[in-house]
Structure of Malate dehydrogenase:
Amino acid sequence: RREPVTITVTGAAGQIGYALLFRVAAGAMFGPEVPVRLRLLEVPDALRAAEGVILELEDCAFPLLAGVEVFDDANRALDGASVAVLVGARPRTAGMERSDLLAANAGIFAPQGRAINDHAAEDIRVVVVGNPANTNALIAQSHAPDVPAARFSALTRLDHNRALAQVAKRVGIDPGHVRRLSIWGNHSSTQYPDLSNVTIDGVAGHPRLADETWIRDEFIPRVAGRGAEIIEVRGRSSAASAANAIIDHVRDWAGGTAPDDWTSAALLSRGEYGVPEGIFCSFPVVSAGQDWQVVPDLELDAGARKSIAASVDEILWERQVVQARGLL
Ligand code: NAX
């Protein structure tokens, strides 16, 4: 048996936390050989609810769960963390401006970034889930100057998985046959799900995926609007599918992506594909078990460039709001 991996989850008493923690404790992130130690972070008002989740984790008698503790202090929760899943965020409430939402979240992600800088393990990997995820990731990363920027990411794997599922349905196969799909831009309704490189069983150019009208009027709005659709149908926002995407993201980052495939994650841009430096943007990415790498040299036609630019503009606007308020 190997040494336990320390995983910090914030917002642990929330609905994503409830869908995530039991699977992580069962070994879904690091496999059946690797014990996990969970450190949970919650706001004081939700500590008791988080303690209830811990009681249930205990009652599962998971053989891989080497320990679980809850804190209301980010420095302690992130102490020794090799993985930080930052889920807890300030939700948008009625009458709240988007700019106020950005500012409220900066107040959460700045101290968490500092806590990661000062207390996390050498091999820390951070995935920001709480919305607005791209900008929250930028705030956390910018408060962790001693941690390589490549250790920070924001989650767009749920968008990626949603898109894989829609493609599989369209073609009439299982999602496991679909590869090389890309989510570009912001984790928001402006994202650009890109089918131009998709292969089905290794073959590009499937005729059912070449229908521009379907892509524009059905596929893209379906994927970009899926979060809203889930709320409308289920009555609550996505939780189990978000937890599943978090597990896929960390598993592929630490364990590596499949040789003939890639996935999507939002990373700090270094200017790839003309995306301005210094914002978190979703790209097609691979991992060999170390850092994420943006897939190089993909062809983007004029329409794709325009769609990506529109989403990038939204990320730039978000950055400008937090910058103007002195939060970066
Ligand atoms: P919930 O409201 O069920 O849970 C959030 C939890 O975070 C609450 O228990 C709250 O007490 C806690 N929290 C708030 N501030 C905190 C802080 N400063 N430190 C620690 N904990 C704190 O929301 P849930 O449905 O779990 O969603 C959480 C976040 O994920 C939301 O921001 C949501 O928008 C975002 N999502 C992001 C997705 C993505 O793909 N990137 C998809 C799913 C989800 O919508």
